[in-house]
Amino acid sequence: MINDFIYNIPVKVYFGKGHLHHLGEELKKYGTRVLMTYGGGSIKRMGLYDKVVREIKAAGLELWELDGIEPNPRIGSVRKGAQMCKEHNIDVLLAVGGGSTIDATKWIAAGACVDFDPWDFLDLSKQAPVKKALPIVDILTLSATGSEMDTAAVISNPETRDKIGRLDPMILPKVSFLNPENTYTVSPYQTACGSSDIMSHILEVYFNTGDDLYMLDTFMEGMMKTVIKYAPVAMKEPDNYEARANLMWTSSWAINGFVTAGKKHAWSCHPMEHELSAYYDITHGHGLAILTPRWMKYCLDETNVYKYVQFGVNVFGIDPKLPPMEIADKAIDMLADFFFKTLGLKSTLPEVGIDETYFDIMAAKSVNYGTLPGFKPLRKEDVLEIYKMCLK
Amino acid sequence: MINDFIYNIPVKVYFGKGHLHHLGEELKKYGTRVLMTYGGGSIKRMGLYDKVVREIKAAGLELWELDGIEPNPRIGSVRKGAQMCKEHNIDVLLAVGGGSTIDATKWIAAGACVDFDPWDFLDLSKQAPVKKALPIVDILTLSATGSEMDTAAVISNPETRDKIGRLDPMILPKVSFLNPENTYTVSPYQTACGSSDIMSHILEVYFNTGDDLYMLDTFMEGMMKTVIKYAPVAMKEPDNYEARANLMWTSSWAINGFVTAGKKHAWSCHPMEHELSAYYDITHGHGLAILTPRWMKYCLDETNVYKYVQFGVNVFGIDPKLPPMEIADKAIDMLADFFFKTLGLKSTLPEVGIDETYFDIMAAKSVNYGTLPGFKPLRKEDVLEIYKMCLK
Question: Could B215 and A223 be called an inter-chain contact, meaning their C-beta atoms sit closer than 8 Å?
């Protein structure tokens, strides 16, 4: 059964090199008082900050700034940004950065419109309704999370060791500027982690036992082939426009809701990884690369092997005449090789500084103290087993 | 060079069986006075008309109707609809039908807002600017033109023997209801013609010699594989939901502007076909099926053979180790077999009642008395040659 769905992605995207002169006109549609948010200063080093400020000034807009948004963005930054919006009567937010900056900006946008602590939007015991949010424009500098075109945003709370994501149409950006040149300075390591994040977004949806729209499966296979083809190119030649452009547009479409349409299962690796980066602050995409092949191996059985076969044949070109289980094993190995050999990511948790200390609590939290209703439903014991598989 | 582009498709799509109860709430967003447009009555035979009227009444809306919109919709229907909108102060248009009904409705929506003859929007010597249009909601009953999600609409003028298409963001539908069940009554022949239309929309973009986004090429290959897989299923089993759903969502995405992003070439087969259906009123998709393999054969040379190879290998699974020209020829033959054997369409112009009588004037008009700047630039003589190739 193909499930009903509603498709509704009204984000306007300026894709390419020559669009920044539209920034002023787009911001002006929403007002004159702009809060620009960004991270640790890489946008200054690459010269983007100056270009953006020039456009804003040329458009006659008033500018405030919030910098220092963390790689796994924290509720503290959200609180600070929401406060600034209220103090300065901000009309529109401009996020300049990667997924972390955009994610934080999304909850700043919602937090600016309420009197309570923005953490109440995330807190699982509260999940305050999002009735309103300031409009968001963004300029993307990292191809990974897809935040530029989706309704999701993940925030960490170091006090409670929570890392919680939530989706709401109110926080969808209005306009996104996607210039692949703005990712030229992304390091090979971050390019690898971003690419692994994109792959995971696709795999979480692709591995689904419901009757799916075949058409969407072909799109997902195409996106995975795109990442496999261009991630190593972008790592070796950071200013290869073709590679950066393909990764950038794929990162948006992997997770904007298009390929998810009609699929019924929840995600698996993301909840498991969120605990790792909540407890250890590792790079999200790296955690996903370590977990994903183990998760695939753990879930494989006779009832779902057909999906692994489809993946192996259509994405990695494995001979369809081999026995199904052989194709499945080979496909998992080839994916692991892509992550750990081609992209050069560490393949075990100890190599990124994670041991068994918090496995128990992380496993319990990843399944919300119950069952994760994914491709294969996972209980705490299952996650524990998958974490252990990542030790060596 | 990958060209810059702007992506902006704010159509809300309700996809699936169970969404019609949202119709009233969506229409109400735009007003209370609704003009419903449709074709020859098939929506009454299939029971859709009654369901729609029931929703409209239940929502307390006022309803007017314009029926009889032709398969190649004519300017007369547009004039009539625009007049009705003015007379009855219509707030919102509801098109129920295939691409023809939606196309006519698009120019009715624009025509309702001006004092001049709506043909002035199309007339190549005038192309009056579209400053305003009534909002459009549609319920699709045929997977083919993609009009439900794009900015284009084609109108015929029998007096001048013109068939002219034009794109404008003002005439993009606000909301589209895509229920694959509403295509169960489409005949095998119309299913074949619709599928050929979808294939053509993709091929017109795919055959492009610019440096393209590889990612988008993989999507196009996936969509072509989807049509090739499901068109024959839908012809044999008209109420196969999976087949109808895949064809329907593919028809929208083939032409909504997504895969076109960054491509530079104009289309070729559509202008050539528009002359055929303007002069002979044949089904658009059938004309495209006859023209497309000939056009591909005519354009093939050493400089562009690589694109045919990509097509043949990735869409039809032809062995990549064969010589490129052999792959290209084979790919064209396999496409022709799909149109003429699998879909059972007539393979020559005489078989659909077209002879050489108007070749000269049709060829001249198809290139606008100049050059068509497509995959391979075509002058009148080239089109004449392609038309002649379609004689046997």
Answer: yes
Together in a domain, B34 and B122 = yes
Task: Give the position of tokens 């990162």.
Answer: A251
Q: Is residue B216 part of a domain?
A: yes
Which of A150, A182, A214 is the C-terminal boundary of a domain?
A: A182
Cβ B222–A241 below 8 Å, yes or no? no
Is residue B45 within 8 A of residue B67, CB to CB? The reply is: no
User: Do B27 and B143 belong to one domain?
Assistant: yes
* Residues A53, A60: Cα–Cα separation, whole Å: 11
Q: A219 and chain B: CB distance < 8 Å anywhere?
A: yes
Restricting to A residues 173-212, those with a Cβ less than 8 Å away from any Cβ of B are 211
B281: domain range?
A: 188-389
Residues A154 and A49 occupy one common structural domain: yes
Is the CB of A2 less than 8 angstroms away from the CB of B214?
no
Query: CA angle, A104 as apex, A10 and A60 as ends, to 5°?
Result: 70
Please write the tens of the pLDDT for every residue from A50-83: 999 999 999 999 999 999 999 889 999 999 999 9
CB A101 within 8 A of CB A121: no
- Chain B residues lying within 8 Å of A211, measured CB to CB: 242
CA distance, residue B241 to nearest chain A CA (Å): 8
pLDDT at A209: 79
A165 Cβ under 8 Å from any chain B Cβ: no
Query: Residues B324-368: pLDDT tens digits?
Result: 999 999 999 999 999 999 999 999 999 999 999 999 999 999 999
CB contact under 8 A, A221 and B222: yes
pLDDT tens digits, residue range B222-265?
Answer: 999 999 999 999 999 999 999 999 999 999 999 999 998 777 77
Indicate yes or no: CB of A211 within 8 angstroms of CB of B245: no
| B4/A10 CB distance under 8 A | no
In the predicted model, what is the mean pLDDT of chain A?
96
- ipTM above 0.85? yes
What is the least distance, in Å, from the CA of A313 to any CA of chain B? 12
Quote the pLDDT of residue B314: 96
Q: Is there a domain that residue A349 lies in?
A: yes
Number of domains in chain A: 2
B178, B218, B258, B264: which to substitute to probe chain A, counting the most A Cβ within 10 Å?
B218
On whether any CB of chain B is under 8 Å from the CB of A14, the answer is: yes
On whether the pTM is more than 0.90, the answer is yes
Residue A163 makes CB contacts below 8 A (sequence gap 6+) with A72, A154, A155, A156, A157, A274, A275, A277, A278
Other C-beta atoms lying within 10 Å of the C-beta of residue A372: 21
| AA letter at B94 | L
- Among B124, B116, B206, B200, which residue's Cα sits nearest to residue B157? B124
Q: Which residues of A touch B245 (CB under 8 A)?
A: 2, 213
